[in-house]
Amino acid sequence: MKKILLAVITLIFLFTLEPELISVDVEAQNTLSAAATTFEDVSLDYWAYSYIERLYNSGITKGCSESPPLYCPEDSVTRAQMAVFLERGIHGRDYQPPAVVGSTGFNDVPADHWAAAWIKQLALDGITTGCGNGNYCPEQAVTRAQMAVFLLRAAYGSEYEPPEIDDSTGFNDVSADHWAAAWIKQLAVQEITSGCGNGNYCPENPVTRAQMAVFLVRTFNLGTPHPIGELIYHKADDVIAYDWFSYVPTSLSKTEKSYMLIGGAFAAVPPTDNYNQITEIGRDVANSYIWTAEVEKFIYLLPIIPRPETNHVYAVAFDWKVFLNSSDPFVQRPDLKVNLMIEKLQSELRLDGYNVQEKIFVEGFSAGGMFAQRYALLHPERVQGVAAGQSGGSLILPEETYNGVKLEWPVGVFDFLTLVGKEFNQEAYKQIPHFIFIGDQDKYNSTLHGIGELWRTQEQIDFMNTTFGYEDTTRLKNECEFMINLGYNVTFKEYEGVGHSWTNEMRNDTYAFFDSIRVGLGNPPVHDPDPNPPSSTLPYLIDGYNSDWEGLEFINDVTGDSISNDTDITRYAYAQDNNYLDIFLETLDPITKNYAVLDIGLYLMDENNNKERYQLNVTSEGNFWGGNYPETWYRIPIAWAFWNDVVEIQIPKSAFVKTNDFVDIQVFYISLFTDVNGTWTCVDNVEMR
């Protein structure tokens, strides 16, 4: 766990010019000279050598011949070959499209054509509609103009359209009225191309296989892996108009299924025209999710969605104004901007070798809860599970009518097609497991206070109040019961004594809910010990007080070895009987940090004193994780802990998954991690002596 939390991977991004403008310095040339060539027809001093090698290492191509190994760099790329290149760029090196059943959809591509499945999938992905008259022209060479369109759609989705251009594309031979002018200019803006030389782009020239390697490597960032264990800030650009943050946990293995989590699309942002201020608030939110990402093994993504004060639009909550062409483009369709983030991150990580699943998990509280439920309504085919807290006091009902009343957005989906531009996929939405929750004292934080911000008419507000209840708690519960009765996959929970806050218990239940979904998908992150363990014979109460510690053999940590000015462990001990392990420690100052964690190293001893190493993590939120170091990690749902300046932990021995039977446990180190100035830091590490 120390390695997990403290690992820092530094990524050096290498940028080189496009072929015609490339230069190689002496040091780089010496490095190349020491390497071995993969293809016999691509020498070390060939201008595109490094790009072709990266394309090969990414698994996108095996060349044009295996024996002898050739790449054919100067050959033109056909439209059939391009389909394979792009589909592997989109879906990853191991992707195989579904076999063609019946027709490919193109007159000139029979079902037995070598690239039939790839060409059909390229069309299904919305990247191509063919070359005209129902044909695809598979043996026709791809031009540089055509490639600009193909690359940008492959990278950012079938719905992507480049920004309109002014009076210049930046290239002498591409006029502003050229059919691909906007695409070519955007390709240059994205630094995927710098042209063919002398200020030209050569739009009608065929793309060679060498040039294709450059295009693909730059478009899909092949060979430039996403940093691991580091919060990454992605600045808005011409393609993805919002800032966003991502984090890939060090605990995530490339061999297991991995899932993306959009979490904390936050509500605690007052209307402001200062977008940078929202980004900095978002950075703090994203940092608070790092531990969650590590423990839950989620790839984390946080979009920074604006909430402008001028011409206010509550974009994170998808009020109806985000669908209007008359609204500021910056607040229009935040869901589509989020989709671009998801697709970009998924593409990068698949090329890094991660088994990233198509569907995502999304959670949030208050306005974040509205974001979670409403994003799932807009894109149910993308969502694996939803956890939405409070949700502004009301859900959008996934129905068009209620007892003859038309339910228009944000009450229901009657006008979904008009607003969104596509039919509502009700069947896909019904399959999404939803966890909807609220505190029983959270009654009056509703958005149903007036029209304009979210609600279009007073009649909508009156309908929700009179039909489902005037208090948020009652309304949400009744809405969930209504959806459950119609066959939607909804779980509702009300938390006693809780107001408008997102508590640790809510967080724990959220991730336990997501765990239950992942278990059904093939990930077994939970280990259940005996649900009714025997009573402990130890004389200690796990109550956060040290009055019953008399008789424990404590070791005093007098070294003062805390490496920050934060909490320092002062003494520690442990005791066990046949059924339980109890661990006790005191700290110099109370542990008040959110997301603090104790990392505890254990040896499980058999009757012959053979040791099996084991690791236990206990978080200040009450989560327990264990593992047979260093391979397997799983959640332990039945254990107890109290945190303050006194920490007491009790865990049943049945919770330990072990290779061999054990009769004794030795604790050999305890480390304490907390968030210090935005960075996970080991603030104290003590060894049992």
Walkthrough of the structure:
26% of the residues lie in helices and 19% in strands. It is an alpha+beta fold. Strands 3, 4, 5, 6, 7, 8, 9, 12 and 13 form a 9-stranded mixed β-sheet that branches. Strand 8, helix 12 (367-378) and strand 9 (383-389) form a beta-alpha-beta unit. The protein is globular and about 85 Å long.
List the SSEs and their pairings:
Layout: H1 2-6, H2 26-33, H3 49-57, E1 65-66, E2 69-70, H4 79-91, H5 116-124, H6 144-156, H7 181-189, H8 209-220, E3 232-234, E4 244-247, E5 257-263, H9 275-288, H10 290-296, E6 298-303, H11 334-351, E7 355-356, E8 360-365, H12 367-378, E9 383-389, E10 401-402, E11 405-406, H13 416-420, H14 426-430, E12 434-439, H15 458-468, H16 472-485, E13 490-495, H17 504-520, E14 555-556, E15 569-576, E16 580-587, E17 597-605, E18 611-619, E19 624-628, E20 632-635, E21 640-642, E22 646-652, E23 664-676, E24 679-687
Parallel strand pairs: 5-6, 5-7, 5-8, 8-9, 9-12, 12-13
Antiparallel strand pairs: 1-2, 3-4, 4-6, 10-11, 14-15, 15-16, 16-22, 17-18, 17-23, 18-19, 19-20, 21-22, 23-24
Helix pairs in contact: 3-8, 4-5, 4-6, 6-7, 15-16
